[in-house]
Amino acid sequence: MSAQVNQLQGKLVDLLFPSHCLGCGKEGSFLCILCRRALPRVLQPLCPKCGRPLIQEDRCPACLKYRWEIHGIRSVFLFQGTVQQAVHQFKYNNCRALASPLAELLAEELERKPLPAQVIVPVPLHPRRLRERGYNQSGLLAKELSRLTGLPLIGDSLLRIKNTSAQARTANAEARRNNVRGVFFCRDGQLKERHVLLVDDVCTTGATLDSCAVALNRAGASSVWGLTLAREG
């Protein structure tokens, strides 16, 4: 019942929103041209693995201690201001209409800086959480990004087999890695010898994306890159 209510709310919200810019309130679109240009981009230099902005080092001290399964992670914006507001509306307030304009921002990033990708795969939700929310925001982003780029979407191969606590409630990087260890599983061979682009909304430590990469690599993926709209921390 809760999922049906969420879906109904989502349809109502989609009719009304986004008709105003989230940045300045100007009528017309979810982001006017000026506010779009002012979005806080993640700038070089970056850690080549987790994508965290660096000040002096060539690589994060944490990444030097940790063996990553993912080839690398790229995030387009910092998780603050208008970007944070847009993600919150999209993820928690049933504003599914934001999937298309947010995916456009991801597509623009790929056009500027291409990644080796043959297929797009969303980070999956556990079935229980999917029923509660009514939709997977990463799945919606991935679907729109597939439409915009022409890359095929494979959304039914990577599964979340354990329902863990939300990563946002987990204290630190090590706890986040432990929280998502062994959580994902590839159920078939669709991704074998494919270069996978893994799509999510926000990256904090990269633990979730890397846990997905473990499952994808075990299934024979040629490479796994993560792409997220925003970077937190």
Which structural class best describes the helix and strand composition? Answer: alpha/beta
Beta-strand content? 15-25%
Calculate the mean pLDDT score and round it.
89
SS field, number of helical segments? 9
Q: Spans with pLDDT under 50 lasting ≥5 residues?
A: none
**Corresponding CATH architecture:** 3-Layer(aba) Sandwich
Find the CATH topology.
Rossmann fold
Tell me about the biggest sheet? 4 strands, parallel
Helical percentage? 25-40%
- The spatial strand order of the largest sheet comes to 1-6-5-2
Computed Rg = 17 Å
Distance between the first and last residues' Cα? 36 Å
How many beta-strand segments? 6
* Series of H and E elements: HHHEHHEHHEHEEHE
Number of domains: 1
The level 1 CATH classification is: Alpha Beta
Gross morphology is globular
